[in-house]
């Protein structure tokens, strides 16, 4: 029949050990199958597998039987990118023209700020994420968006694209 085992975690010689009592007495030649479900945290930087050492001890056997089980580890995380433009809509009058040579921002158009937020929805943490964002800055050989500056928050780094604030506005 199937029975639930009672297992107790403890530390032994600096290792985390889970001790499960299978029962006593056991008949000679008995075969037992044990299915265990383990929940282990902090595996993000453990590589692609974790190995568990198993040891079967019996009071009737002079030496314990040892085995190891290697389990593949795969971290999963769902990322979500959110974006917003401020102002949401921009309209330039037909009569407006850019002032060549000016270093004043308002002579080059209306300032539009694009804000992107990258969220980790879990369940695992992530590191080493690269986000590549392509911004159309020209249309028909004419400047559509003049890329003025890039900024980040939250310990992220950003690589400036070629031509960022080329006219030093």
Automatic annotation (TrEMBL):
<dbReference type="GO" id="GO:0008305">
    <property type="term" value="C:integrin complex"/>
</dbReference>
<dbReference type="Pfam" id="PF20806">
    <property type="entry name" value="Integrin_A_Ig_3"/>
</dbReference>
<dbReference type="GO" id="GO:0005178">
    <property type="term" value="F:integrin binding"/>
</dbReference>
<dbReference type="Pfam" id="PF20805">
    <property type="entry name" value="Integrin_A_Ig_2"/>
</dbReference>
<dbReference type="InterPro" id="IPR048285">
    <property type="entry name" value="Integrin_alpha_Ig-like_2"/>
</dbReference>
<dbReference type="GO" id="GO:0033627">
    <property type="term" value="P:cell adhesion mediated by integrin"/>
</dbReference>
<dbReference type="GO" id="GO:0009897">
    <property type="term" value="C:external side of plasma membrane"/>
</dbReference>
<dbReference type="GO" id="GO:0001525">
    <property type="term" value="P:angiogenesis"/>
</dbReference>
<dbReference type="GO" id="GO:0098609">
    <property type="term" value="P:cell-cell adhesion"/>
</dbReference>
<feature type="domain" description="Integrin alpha third immunoglobulin-like">
    <location>
        <begin position="80"/>
        <end position="167"/>
    </location>
</feature>
<dbReference type="GO" id="GO:0007229">
    <property type="term" value="P:integrin-mediated signaling pathway"/>
</dbReference>
<dbReference type="GO" id="GO:0007160">
    <property type="term" value="P:cell-matrix adhesion"/>
</dbReference>
<keyword id="KW-0325">Glycoprotein</keyword>
<feature type="domain" description="Integrin alpha second immunoglobulin-like">
    <location>
        <begin position="3"/>
        <end position="73"/>
    </location>
</feature>
<protein>
    <submittedName>
        <fullName>ITA2B protein</fullName>
    </submittedName>
</protein>
<keyword id="KW-0472">Membrane</keyword>
<dbReference type="InterPro" id="IPR032695">
    <property type="entry name" value="Integrin_dom_sf"/>
</dbReference>
<keyword id="KW-0401">Integrin</keyword>
<dbReference type="InterPro" id="IPR048286">
    <property type="entry name" value="Integrin_alpha_Ig-like_3"/>
</dbReference>
């Amino acid at each position: 029949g199937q029975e639930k085992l009672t297992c107790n975690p403890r530390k032994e010689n600096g290792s985390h050990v889970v001790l499960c009592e299978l029962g006593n007495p056991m008949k000679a030649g008995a075969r037992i199958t044990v299915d265990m479900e383990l929940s282990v945290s902090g595996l993000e930087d453990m590589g692609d597998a974790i190995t568990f050492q198993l040891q079967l001890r019996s009071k009737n056997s002079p030496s314990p039987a040892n085995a190891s089980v290697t389990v593949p580890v795969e971290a999963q995380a769902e990322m979500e990118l959110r974006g917003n433009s401020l102002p949401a809509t921009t309209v330039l009058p037909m009569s407006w023209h850019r002032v060549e040579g000016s270093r004043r921002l308002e002579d080059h158009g209306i300032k539009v700020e694009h804000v992107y937020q990258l969220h980790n929805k879990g369940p695992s943490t992530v590191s080493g994420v690269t986000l590549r964002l392509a911004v159309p800055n020209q249309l028909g050989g004419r400047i559509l968006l003049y890329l003025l500056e890039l900024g980040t928050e939250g310990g992220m780094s950003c690589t400036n694209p070629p031509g960022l604030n080329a006219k030093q506005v």
